[in-house]
Amino acid sequence: MRVFKGSRAALGVVAVLALGGCGLGNGTGGNPGSTDKAVDTNQRIVVDNFRAPVADWAPESDAAYILSLSGCLETLTKYDHAEGKVVPFLASSWKQVSDLEWDFTLRDDVKFQDGTPLTADAVVASLKHVLEAKVPARAFSKKVVSGVKAVDARTVRVSTPVESPLVPYRLASVNTGVLAPAAYKGTSVDPFGHCTGPFVPVSEKAKQSITLDRNENYWGGKVQLAGAEVRFITNGATRAAQVQTGEADISMSIPVASLPSLEGSRDVTVLKADSPRTATLYLNNKRKPLNDPKVRKALRAALDLEALAASVYEGAALPASGPFAPSEPWAIDGAVPPKQDLDAAKKLLAEAGYTPERPLEVIAIVERAEFADVATVLQDNLKKIGVPVAVQSKEYAAAEPDVMAGKYDMLLSQRNRLIDIADPIGFLTADYSCEGSYNLSHFCDAEYDRLIGEASRAADSKERYKLYARAGKILDEQAVNLWLVNEQATDAVRKEVQGFVQDPLSRYVLTAQTAKSGS
């Protein structure tokens, strides 16, 4: 039996997010406050975020990320990037009581924002809502969790269909955030006044913003801000402009094109951290002509990734060498970025019997401002081998239904490998397994699924990482997608903001420690 409490919360995983020299911890991302002015607890701030909720605040959806970064939604455990381990959050400790069961002990000093106490029954109700959702969260579904129950008033038991060493990681997913029972009384979930976090949502403008006030009774200590507004700004240039002018205090995901002006500003600090995020050209493996691996490999051979990284990304990203960054502990051994080889690309197309019956469509999501330029570069590269491409710009929410249904050719997007849980098992299962809930590529391979299944049961992290590398090699050898560049997380913060620590996964922005000096 394994017991986890306080500083012993790690599962033997040592800094799995340490990518490169500065790692995925704070790196240059800490912003202790560069002003000499004292914190003014009457201040409010504005945060520009790059996405909006799309599912009426359902916690099993990506809306959970908005609620989490807004300082509303909290989970039983939390992944600490600086420490490189899972640490207590709403749960004070946990232990594995059998091969298939984990018990989580709740803190005894937590109340929901509506004044009701945090109890095991309330936690179980929240987790069951996610588990039984029509489209469950990728990190917490019936495929990986068989049941949740209250052992007593302070203990929650999570059961799994097979032994899983990663249950505490799954309980750190924002999708497992806990809401008060009153949040589930209507036909849709209502998080307003029903979270446990330092900020209480009080109003919203649909698809535009959410306004929050300080939680005066927060269990985690005094909240330094009176409140905040989180705006949903999909245009990266707009986010950059607003933090530069002072209209916003924090802007998330700054596009490369906006960096020179921000880095030259005396009033703004640009924060950068290595990110497990790769800009990717997703390929529909079930649709002609992309269902032929030779065609997919031809497209890969046609791309000049070095030129792409140097031009569009202005050196702020590195050419990708496959589905993983080369510095990750589960990277494919010896993988290097592919070089452009137009002759090899044309030969592969000839072998596949490819003829350009129609232009292949690339959907470039608008949430990433640079993707319009990336799409133009890709279009030019593929034209050189006789593959016509049409580019269409869309918001991701508008594109997703057709992409999930397989009604598309190519999608220019990006995916964070650790977005579901702080281990790539979530990404590798959801995105590439035959029954994966987020398999945009519509890829299916029995050997790949076998390796991922074996990895999900491996308690030893080194063995698990070896299996991830073998699975990644299958993806690379079949050119399932075209991985373009490994990106950085880049945010911008006004100098008056204090106590902000950059999170490369964009889960935590507003915390009790976030503060602002007086004007």
Describe, in short, the structure shown.
The protein is built from 13 helices and 22 strands. It has helices at 63-69, 120-131, 167-170, 236-245, 259-263, 293-302, 305-311, 342-352, 371-383, 396-404, 425-432, 446-456, 461-477, and strands at residues 2-5, 30-31, 44-49, 77-80, 85-88, 91-98, 101-106, 147-152, 155-159, 199-205, 209-214, 227-232, 250-251, 268-283, 318-319, 360-365, 389-394, 410-416, 482-494, 497-498, 500-501, 515-516. The radius of gyration is 23 Å and the shape is globular.
Description:
It is a single chain. With 519 residues, this protein is α+β, with helices and mostly antiparallel strands. It is built from 13 helices and 22 strands. The protein has helices spanning 63-69, 120-131, 167-170, 236-245, 259-263, 293-302, 305-311, 342-352, 371-383, 396-404, 425-432, 446-456, 461-477; strands spanning 2-5, 30-31, 44-49, 77-80, 85-88, 91-98, 101-106, 147-152, 155-159, 199-205, 209-214, 227-232, 250-251, 268-283, 318-319, 360-365, 389-394, 410-416, 482-494, 497-498, 500-501, 515-516. Strands 3, 10, 11, 12, 13, 14, 15, 16, 17, 18 and 19 form an 11-stranded mixed sheet that branches. A 5-stranded antiparallel sheet has the order 1-6-7-9-8, with helices on one face. The chain has a two-stranded antiparallel sheet with strand order 2-21. A hairpin with a 4-residue loop joins strand 4 (77-80) and strand 5. Helix 12 runs antiparallel to helix 13.
